[in-house]
Hints:
Elements: H1 5-31, H2 40-64, H3 69-96
Helix pairs in contact: 1-2, 1-3, 2-3
Amino acid sequence: MTFDSAIISALIVCLASIGLDFIIGVLLSIKKSEFSLSKLPQTIGKNIFPYIGGLIILALAGNYIPELTAVFYAGVGLVTVKFSKEALIDKVKELMI
């Protein structure tokens, strides 16, 4: 079983943008004094794991079923744009203020 390196690379970039968004979001909530350790598992479960799980499933499907490779790349592209544009840029600006 071998994985397509392009699929792995795309998945890593997308997961990195999700992770950066999460870390910056935590830092921002600490800055605003809104951080709650008790809400952290709920946030991870509702806002992080569904994206990660879905992308991993699409990566596996795209690797073994060539027809689904385009679906994987579309999903990775959309999720990366969502977490990059909306979250990272706006949150970094807000963190710097």
